[in-house]
Amino acid sequence: MRKSVKDRLPTFSPEETRLVRGSYDFLGLNYYTTWYATNTPRLPGEKPTYLSDQELTTQTERDGVSIGDPTGATWLFIVPRGIYNLLVYVKETYKAELIYITENGMAEVNDTSLTISKARVDPLRVRYYNEHLWYLRKAIVEGGVNVKAYFLWAFADNFEWAEGYTSRFGIFYVDYKDGRYTRVPKTSAIWWKNFFTKKIKQGSLKREAKEVDRDYDLRKKSRTNNA
Asked: What is the domain class of 24-226 according to CATH?
């Protein structure tokens, strides 16, 4: 950031630097997905902006192969290994001593043609959380990352920025039509309940994560072959 933004960055006085150094309580990280990034230097004379300062372009596929399985949001693909890579990178690069995962989750399209009983069945979201938790544990155990809190997004379906009510992130289904916004637990909410009460079969996270790794390696092999 200092290299790209240069003198457009504000500066701290020596006193302000001493005041803020080591003063944070924890570092909060939101993680949803991972994209490919390509180095894209700013053109001579190009007006500097937040986007051009990054000097990169992003994409969700490479050589015709998607980076992960799609979800109900066009920008969000399922890439569980990314949360491990992010946590280890932040720890090693910035010497972060305490990290909270402040958001982690995935979206489904709000299909208004489905009944509530069908819309509340969300096995893809269960898989998403299952696989991300496994990589989160891997970052803690193998990567030595000090993660002390984890918050999923979201407890209930809600108004999602520019997407409005067209996507659903919640583990509780919200009925927008009944006038009372009735909340119904999805299968992912029941999965979380079983997870917290230790009713999920021992070893299931590890077994399923092996399949995640295998799928990741197959995608990587496919990209190499296409290249």
From this structure: alpha beta
